């Protein structure tokens, strides 16, 4: 089967950074479904994994996490899907990726593709939707019953995760303050439902105060955890919660949160599949619920650009766009 892989960590401007390769077509066993890939999306995690290698390898590593496609074959323990079903999912960082003609994924982390979306529109959604959903509703414990009209600060509102988080926070009735540093990204955040826009390249507290918020009970950090740490510690309300998805090699001074009894939590969307937690099937439920919300018009796809077809050249271009740090929404590579 056709696939796109890499042998060593190279600049995306190098044509060998991602290459067209061939691999054996895998067979579905156990809880796995074999999916014929119709569209994939590139996320920051793709670029980080591509650049994480230390030595050149003999066998190519296939990247790709977000995908939408059609079930071709099911393993003997599968109960959720059958051949012909249309699915979308965010994959598993411990296994070969979705940048291939066919892909194996555990059915418990896949969902039914939204009926109202194309494969390309669907492929834009899984990883960022799961990240935002888990961060908001599981890590921070937000609910519409207790948090309606409470403010949340989303740092990095125009990216893929931010685009999903703004929409989901609005469904819970929160007042959303999103950060954006350019007029076009600010407009995108407003279009998705953000109530207030501030610039994360400027001091956050004065901007919040000007918008009428001396502090906020929730902060969802999707951009430069270490760089925003002091500001977040200053802004978070007493007994508030900060959740971040952005890793950092710098040490974070947690004692800055002590007097406020504030909490800091990480969100890593791949935790369930990496450790095969007892609740791994929860991602199947979340994706199905998100698909229903999309089909009802409550959520919208965050796709902003589609490239054709799925090959090394187009995936390199998608990596280049993500690495620029100027992506609004999501870029997808589709077969047709």
TrEMBL record:
InterPro entries listed in its UniProt record: ADH-like_N (IPR013154), ADH_Zn_typ-1 (IPR014182), ER (IPR020843), GroES-like_sf (IPR011032), Lipid_raft_assoc_Zn_ADH (IPR052585), NAD(P)-bd_dom_sf (IPR036291)
Pfam families, per the entry: ADH_N, ADH_zinc_N_2
Keyword entries, A-Z: Metal-binding, Oxidoreductase, Zinc
SUPFAM superfamilies given in the database record: GroES-like, NAD(P)-binding Rossmann-fold domains
Source species, domain of life: Bacteria
Coiled coil stretches, renumbered: none
An MF annotation (GO) of this entry: zinc ion binding
Enoyl reductase (ER) domain ranges (all copies): 13-333
UniProt record similarity statement: Belongs to the zinc-containing alcohol dehydrogenase family. Quinone oxidoreductase subfamily.
Stated name of the protein: Zinc-type alcohol dehydrogenase-like protein
């Amino acid at each position: 089967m056709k696939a796109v892989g890499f042998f060593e960590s190279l600049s995306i401007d190098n044509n060998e950074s991602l290459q067209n390769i061939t691999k054996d077509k895998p067979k579905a066993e156990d809880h796995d479904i074999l999916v014929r890939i119709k569209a994939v999306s590139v996320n920051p995690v793709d670029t980080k994994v591509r650049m994480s290698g230390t030595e050149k390898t003999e066998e190519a590593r296939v990247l790709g996490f977000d995908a939408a496609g059609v079930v071709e074959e099911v393993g003997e323990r599968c109960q959720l899907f059958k051949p012909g079903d249309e699915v979308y999912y965010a994959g598993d960082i411990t296994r070969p990726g979705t940048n291939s003609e066919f892909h194996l994924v555990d059915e418990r982390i896949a969902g039914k593709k939204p009926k109202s979306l194309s494969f390309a529109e669907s492929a834009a959604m899984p990883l960022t939707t799961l990240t935002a959903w888990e961060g908001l509703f599981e890590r921070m414990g937000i609910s519409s019953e207790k948090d309606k009209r409470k403010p949340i600060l989303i740092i990095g509102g125009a990216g893929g995760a931010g685009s999903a988080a703004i929409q989901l926070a609005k469904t819970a009735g929160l007042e959303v303050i999103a950060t954006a540093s350019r007029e076009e990204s600010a407009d995108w955040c407003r279009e998705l439902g953000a109530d207030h826009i501030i610039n994360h390249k400027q001091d956050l507290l004065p901007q919040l105060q000007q918008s009428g918020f001396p502090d906020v009970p929730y902060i969802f950090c999707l951009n430069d955890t270490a760089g925003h740490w002091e500001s977040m510690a200053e802004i978070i309300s007493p007994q508030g919660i900060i959740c971040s998805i952005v890793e950092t090699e710098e040490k974070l001074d947690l004692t800055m949160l002590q007097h406020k009894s504030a909490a800091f939590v990480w969100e890593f969307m791949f935790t369930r599949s990496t450790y095969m937690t007892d609740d791994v099937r929860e991602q199947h439920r979340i994706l199905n619920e998100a698909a229903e919300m999309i089909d009802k018009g409550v959520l919208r796809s965050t796709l902003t650009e589609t490239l054709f077809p799925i090959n090394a050249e187009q995936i390199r271009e998608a990596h280049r766009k993500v690495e620029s740090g100027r992506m609004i929404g999501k870029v997808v590579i589709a077969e047709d």
